[in-house]
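Dear H.,

Thanks for agreeing to be a second pair of eyes. The structure we're designing against is below in token form, covering all 123 positions.
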């Protein structure tokens, strides 16, 4: 049965299976994803410990989790571009560069969030 014909719980189970495959592929093929996952695993408990309020904890935690989200999207774009053609093309390079820039912005956002919340406590 094709996934687009599924509904309800069956669709949810199929979507969960696809997500698991996506996480597995990212782990297997993307060193950046593995590194960022380690960052999230280290930073998550720190976010819960270092945040003084629930708002601070949520901001610290979501700022690092969004890095993984953007990295997964970046990986998806790279895979599709490589699937279309392994040959160098200006537009393919631009798509990969823009996706990479999105990852960079997510890293800057996380670092800025952590700095704005934690640095004032040490000054």
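And this is the sequence the design step returned. I haven't edited it by hand at all.
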């Amino acid at each position: 049965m094709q996934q687009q014909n599924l509904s309800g719980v069956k669709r949810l189970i199929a979507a969960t299976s696809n997500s698991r495959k996506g996480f597995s592929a990212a782990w297997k093929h993307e060193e950046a994803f593995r590194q960022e996952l380690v960052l999230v695993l280290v930073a998550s408990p720190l976010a819960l410990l270092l945040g003084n309020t629930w708002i601070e904890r949520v901001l610290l935690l979501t700022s690092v989790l969004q890095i993984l989200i953007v990295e997964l999207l970046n990986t998806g774009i790279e895979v599709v571009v490589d699937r279309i053609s392994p040959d160098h093309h200006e537009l393919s390079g631009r798509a990969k560069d823009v996706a990479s820039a999105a990852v960079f912005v997510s890293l800057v956002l996380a670092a800025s969030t952590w700095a704005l919340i934690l640095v004032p406590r040490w000054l």
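Two observations from my side: The mean pLDDT is 94. The chain has one domain: 30-122.

Warmly,
E.
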